[in-house]
Design goal:
Pfam families: CMD. The protein is an all-alpha fold. It has helices spanning 3-6, 9-27, 29-42, 50-64, 67-79, 84-121. The radius of gyration is 15 Å and the shape is globular.
Length: 122
C-alpha cells in the first residue's frame, strides 16, 4: 500500500518533503548542514516572533507557488499558534502582490492544509 492511500494530501506532502530532504542530506551533507544552520538561525525568535516569521514564509511560499513550502509553513504557522484568520490574512497580503495565481493557492492548498492539520490534531 502506498503511503498516500492512508494519509491526507498535507501529511503526504510533509512526508515526501522530509524523505527528500533526508536523501539530499545523505548525498550532500555539507550543503544540507550549512543550509539547515542558516534557516534555523533565520527562524529563531528575535525582534520578530517565530509565528511572525512563519507567516512571512507562508506569504512568500504562496506568492512563489511553492506547494511543499506552502504546506510546510501552514504547519509552521499552526505549530507557532497562528489562528486560521491570521494565516488567511497573511496569504491575502501575498495575494495582493501575486494576483490570481496566489489567490488560487490561498483558496485551495492553504485552506486544505489548515483543515488537514486541524483534523490530525483531534
Amino acid at each position: 500500500m502506498n503511503h498516500h492511500d492512508t494519509e491526507n494530501h498535507t501529511e503526504a506532502a510533509l512526508h515526501d518533503f522530509k524523505a527528500g530532504l533526508g536523501l539530499f542530506s545523505k548525498k550532500m551533507p555539507l550543503i544540507a548542514e550549512k543550509y539547515n544552520e542558516f534557516t534555523e538561525e533565520c527562524f529563531k525568535e528575535g525582534v520578530l516572533s517565530k509565528k511572525e516569521k512563519q507567516l512571512i514564509a507562508l506569504g512568500i511560499s504562496v506568492f512563489s507557488q511553492d506547494e511543499y513550502c506552502i504546506v510546510y509553513h501552514v504547519k509552521g504557522c499552526m505549530d507557532e499558534g497562528a489562528a486560521e484568520d491570521e494565516i488567511l490574512e497573511a496569504v491575502s497580503v501575498a495575494a495582493a502582490f501575486g494576483g490570481g495565481a496566489a489567490v488560487s493557492q490561498a483558496v485551495t492548498l492553504v485552506q486544505e492544509s489548515i483543515n488537514d492539520l486541524k483534523d490530525s490534531l483531534h
